[in-house]
Structure formats: C-alpha cells, structure tokens
C-alpha cells in the first residue's frame, strides 16, 4: 500500500473516517506507546477534568429549592416533595439520583456554584454551548478557552486530552489543539498505519495547509508514545460516562503528562417526561463521577484532581404542558475533588424575580474558569478569559 501524501490527506477525507476521529491530534488506544514512563507529570501538578452535560441540564431539578413555595407552584406535577430530596440545608437539596454527590458534600469535597450564566443569555443550544466553550459571550471566536490555554503554555500535544472521537470547541486553539482519544476506536491496520506515516515527513514545498497536517500528525505520533499501555474498560458501556472517566483515571495514575481532560454526557434536553429522564442521566453522572473520585482517593495524585461539571444553560422556572421544561438561562456548576472548598458559592437566584420567565444569573461563568486556570492550572487567566474576572474562593489553598 503506497504512503499517503499530505496532499492526498487534504483531498481524501476517507482517511479521517478511517481514523474514526475528527481533530488535529487523533489517537487510538491500541496503537499508542506509553510516554508517562519517560516524561511523567510532575508531582503536585493540578489536573482539571471538564465534564460537559450537553442539552441544557435543568438546574432547578438538580439543586432543588424544596422549601420554596414558588418552586412547587411553578411545577405542580414536576416538583419533588421535600421528603424526596437529599437535603443540603433547610432550603436546598440534591436530586434523589445524586446520592454519591451527597456523600461528597458531606465530606466537603463538593462545591456548588449557584446561578451561573452570562450576560444577555441565548436559548440556542449551539450558540450557548459555543459561548461556554469559547468563554466569549459578546462575539463568536474560533478558539476555545482550553485551546487558548494550550496556545499560551507550550506545544506538547498531550497537555489536554478529550475522551471521545470529536474535539469540542473548548479544545481548539489557534496554534494547538487537545488530543482526541476514542474509547470505542479500533486499532489501525498495519497497512493504514504505514500509509499514514508519510504525513509526518517535512517538505520545504509544503503549503501552509499541508504544513498544518504535518504538524498535526507529528503531534499524533507523540501522543501515540504516551497512551499505548492504557486500555478502556468496554464492559461498562451501559453508562457512557464511566469508560471515559475510567480512561482518565488510568492516565492520571500512570503519570501521563496531561493537565486537562474533557469528557461529556448528553441527553439533557428534557422538554418532556423530564423527571424520569433527568433522574436517569443524573444517576449516570453520579455513578461515574463518584466512582472516579473514589478510585483516585487513595492514589497520591488524587489530591491534585478537580472535576468541573457544567451545562450550556438551565431550564425555565415553570414546567411546560409535557411535564418537562424549556430552554432557560442560569444553572448550577459543580466542582468536586479533594482541593475544592466544599459548600455553596454564589447567590441563589430568585424564583419570582425573573427575566421573562428565566432565572437571572448571579455568577459569571468566566469567574469559575478564572479560578481553575489560576488555581488548578497555575496560569495567568487574563489572556484566556479577559479582564475584570476574579476568583470565587472555590478551591482551598
């Protein structure tokens, strides 16, 4: 089989399909060689795991204002009775599916940031998720907030890793992108691996576009040397988040030099039959996240890990006619792990002082990013999230 040139690579999109990945640095578990043994992550380095809940998770059904009559009045068929809720204090409680997170709360390892949103909210899934992932509420930009962190901090292609076949917007920088690892990917055939080997060979006659392909494939080869010994647990596929976090845990324990991991769980667009659907989804999140943190709790690197969970928007306060809720605005953000300052942060939004039926945000999401960039990734947040942002006290010293 002849080697594939970069020109053929640019023209022939079938190569990307064969890789099973859309992204600048594509990797598959079965073909990679471990690099953690040669350049392990320095002890004490903060590790951020970003969990995206796609679809617009209903924050009011997650952190439940069970003692507020306005909650029960707005959702007469959808509201949880006080005795069904996992009480956090005398006003708020967690969805009954979040028993593991309730335990983290008791252990002071769960921070709940209330009322998180951005100015002039957008009800479109695509635009709102774009805003959260680029950290640019005022105008569209091509780079994500983690991508800009990559641009600012070097050129090692494994500093950020997305678990999944397609890189999210947050992972795309102007010069660098995160690596993409697909837990479900099959190994490349020997013929295809040989054919792709030509992509890493430099050529002075390359156009800028071909040069980018060369750089991307060279990055992929570095990634290949990092992750070869790590294998996904395919037996836990019933919960799609579990194998993602299993891989992250293996990477962390192996000392892989990755500072940011991105994982995701979808299905939160609950316009109908919300109670049942959301309980199932939150149960999957709870099961996977608590198992992940428990797995790391006895490992020396576990104390360095912070998991950040967010969704593109919350839901409207009032239930709709289909026992669901429609696209809203503000919602809670979770931070979990040993380094977090457990408890509530931010002001609880009013259920009666609304903006056309929507919650008014009390915390700007860029302040959350500011703190994890500053305190977890030890970097200057200003070039990434802009000026005027501040830490919120979400993490301990």
From TrEMBL:
Signal peptide: none annotated. InterPro entries: DUF1501, TAT_signal, TAT_signal_bac_arc. It holds the Pfam family DUF1501. It comes from the Bacteria. PANTHER family: BLL7424 PROTEIN (PTHR43737), DUF1501 DOMAIN-CONTAINING PROTEIN (PTHR43737:SF1). This is DUF1501 domain-containing protein. It comes from Nocardia terrae.
